[in-house]
Amino acid sequence: MDYERKGVTITWQIENGVCIEDLHSPVIFLDVMDGTNWRLWVRRMSKKIISLTIERGAEDNGPKEFGLHYEFFVNELQCSYSTRKRMHTFRFLKGDKGNIVEGRRLQMDSSDSTTIRCKLWRLWGSISKSSHFFVRTRLTKESYIFRGKVEKFSDFSHYEKKTLKTVTPFMDEREITVNLSLFPLSASNSDTIMEIELTPMSHQADNFFDFQIFILDSSGNKSDIGKFENQFRVRRNVKFVLPNVSKEYIMENAKHYLTNDALSLRCEFTFWSVIEYENVERTEFEADSVSEVKQTDFSKAVELSKARDGIPCDTKLQTATETFPAHTNILSAQSPVFEAMFKTNMKETIQKCVR
After folding, report:
1. Among the listed ranges 17-31, 69-83, 165-179, which one has the minimum average pLDDT value?
2. SUPFAM superfamilies per the record (predicted)?
3. Cβ neighbours around 274 below 10 Å, total
């Protein structure tokens, strides 16, 4: 395979992480590849593994069969790890999906953006000019917080289950019940462990959600004991033990943790439900990597911003070590990526800062 051949690069930025079971990009029309249509797919397999593939449109105007060489790169913001898989070759009929590519050991922080890059070459023939498409998807992220209370905690006995709350944090009205139970630690240890169970009331989409729980002291403040946080799938029943705490410990420190013999716990959900925004922009620049594109744009922007000292700036460019004042009109003129960013109600526009 000649890597110097002209090809098409699709850079797909997903804001708020990859927390939906199956997420696809908007359709990308490739006139340089006989009018075929394509979209990228990403599936969250676990907290640190995603799978990727590309799909040809079922109703495009291209030939019956179209062959591609393609490869994926994954670069997460604030993470230097990048995974590159081998070149894949596939002959696509209309509506076909290509081979599944797994991205492993990714630091999937759900609060960050994920950038996926797919590079395509024709299997037969060539194209006259390389093209680049910048695709952006933003997921809706919301938080749901409640305080659960266990009345008459001193009477709470082994194997008893108390429902803290049944919550409906999702737009499609799916419910999750949060239960607290007590169990003996072991036959030889009389300490009583405290177990939380999250039970979904339906089994629809298998999206992910973040969950945190805290034991509150008698003043309503979060305490360090019993603190737990993790990410789970929506449709799976999960159980976990609250760390570093037992019923005996709570009773020994009742003045600090109990109010009128009631134990209070704070539960926090963060969930993702629908696509809030998506867009496709065709750009003219070429680069070997996403980081190279960003570095080029930053260098030009910083240089031009310094050349215009005295003119009020309306945004900032922030790197890991420095922050530079900048002008959105200059950035937009220098980079189609910035132009697409500032034309829409993206977080960079709202926060007036590009990180």
Report:
1. 69-83
2. POZ domain
3. 10
Burial 64-80 (b: 16+ CB within 10 A, else e): eebebbbbbbbbbeeee
Structural domain span for residue 250: 142-273
121 and 207 in a single domain? The answer is no
Which own/partner pairs from 158-166 qualify as long-range (CB within 8 Å, at least 24 positions apart)?
Answer: 158/182, 158/183, 158/184, 158/192, 159/183, 161/197, 164/265, 164/267, 165/267, 166/201
List C-alpha distances in Å: 354 to 291, 338, 348: 14, 9, 5
DSSP string, 123-166: SSS--SS-EEEEEEEEEEEEEEEEEEEESSGGG--TT-EEEEEE
Q: Are residues 313 and 260 in the same domain?
A: no
Query: DSSP 3-state assignment of 4?
Result: coil
pLDDT of 208 = 73
Same-domain status, 197 and 304: no
Q: How far is CA 330 from CA 20, 136, 279, 334, 348, in A?
A: 36, 21, 22, 6, 15
Number of domains in the chain: 3
pTM: 0.65
Determine the 3-state secondary structure of 250 from DSSP.
Answer: helix
φ/ψ of 107, rounded to 5, equals -80, 85
Tell me the residue type at 124.
Answer: W
CB 150 within 8 A of CB 162: yes
Kindly state the tokens that stand for 203. Answer: 């089994």
Report yes or no: 90 and 72 within 8 Å, Cβ to Cβ: no
Query: What pLDDT does 302 receive?
Result: 47
Domain presence at residue 22: yes
